[in-house]
């Protein structure tokens, strides 16, 4: 009889533990929840222009609402810290590389400072007016950053070079032109994947140390204007290169001097 009672007691205790763990996972961190609401406030001011567009409707100012369950948000299942924000194409309609919506205000990157464990940030196709500041530099855990379709140029990379954990940088559909790689890219020493497709890059500098890109494994450069073998020589010297896309360029169309 005592054995049955003890067994029931153990079952009850296990149930209490499970309920406690479940309840502990219910809510995300308050500072991150408030950070998301502050970010939504900025995005709402930018996107809503008298239309019926609802920005991030699941992001509600309710302490009982678990922000880990909000749309475009992913949390670590153990720590409940936000590790991924997918904020692609918040407003407008995409046409090719760009959409018909342009941010009227500069994006203050300090809006992301609450998310200290963030590993993936996708801000693609928002055509953000980029302000060089130190806000993103606090994201020292960031490994993947997608800034495609935002009209960026090489000068915008200066404010990102201190992101030492960055492994994947996606910059497709921007306004990069001239030589590849730009001097600014050499500061991203831990990059493994680089996507600069759909830009206006045209050649590769002859004097550039591939050692600065020793970890680069995947390079995506399709739909640019490369037309010389210099780019092939440089890419061929990358020690870790495993995957390369140079399709839809002008390789093989290099001009040759005519015979006199």
From TrEMBL:
Top-rank taxon, per record: Eukaryota
PROSITE patterns, per database record: LRR
Bilayer topology term: Single-pass type I membrane protein
Leader sequence segment: 1-27
GO CC entries: plasma membrane
Boundaries of every Leucine-rich repeat-containing N-terminal plant-type domain copy: 32-76
Pfam family, one: LRRNT_2
Alphabetical keyword list: Cell membrane, Glycoprotein, Leucine-rich repeat, Membrane, Receptor, Repeat, Signal, Transmembrane, Transmembrane helix
Localization terms from the record: Cell membrane
InterPro entries: Leu-rich_rpt (IPR001611), Leu-rich_rpt_typical-subtyp (IPR003591), LRR_dom_sf (IPR032675), LRR_N_plant-typ (IPR013210), RLP23-like (IPR046956)
Assigned protein family: Belongs to the RLP family.
Protein name: Leucine-rich repeat-containing N-terminal plant-type domain-containing protein
Taxonomic source organism: Gossypium aridum (American cotton)
């Amino acid at each position: 009889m005592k054995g049955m009672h003890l067994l029931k007691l153990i079952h009850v205790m296990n149930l209490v533990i499970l309920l406690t763990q479940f309840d502990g996972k219910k809510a995300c961190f308050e500072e991150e929840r408030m950070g998301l609401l502050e970010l939504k406030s900025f995005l709402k001011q930018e996107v809503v222009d008298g239309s019926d567009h609802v920005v991030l409707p699941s992001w509600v100012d309710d302490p009982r609402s678990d922000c880990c369950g909000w749309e475009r948000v992913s949390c670590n299942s153990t720590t409940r810290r936000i590790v991924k924000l997918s904020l692609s194409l918040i407003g407008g309609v995409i046409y090719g590389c760009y959409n018909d919506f342009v941010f009227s205000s500069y994006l203050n990157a300090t809006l992301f400072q609450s998310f200290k464990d963030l590993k993936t940030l996708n801000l693609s196709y928002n055509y953000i007016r980029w302000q060089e500041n130190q806000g993103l530099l606090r994201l020292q855990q960031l490994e993947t950053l997608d800034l495609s379709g935002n009209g960026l140029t090489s000068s915008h990379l200066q404010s990102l070079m201190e992101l030492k954990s960055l492994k994947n940088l996606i910059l497709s559909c921007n306004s990069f032109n001239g030589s590849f790689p730009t001097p600014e890219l050499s500061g991203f020493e831990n990059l493994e994947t680089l996507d600069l497709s759909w830009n206006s890059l045209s050649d590769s500098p002859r004097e550039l140390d591939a050692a600065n890109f020793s970890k680069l494994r995947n390079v995506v450069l399709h739909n640019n204007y490369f037309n010389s073998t210099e780019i092939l020589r440089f890419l061929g010297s990358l020690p870790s290169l495993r995957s390369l896309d140079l399709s839809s360029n002008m390789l093989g169309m290099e001009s040759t001097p005519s015979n006199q």
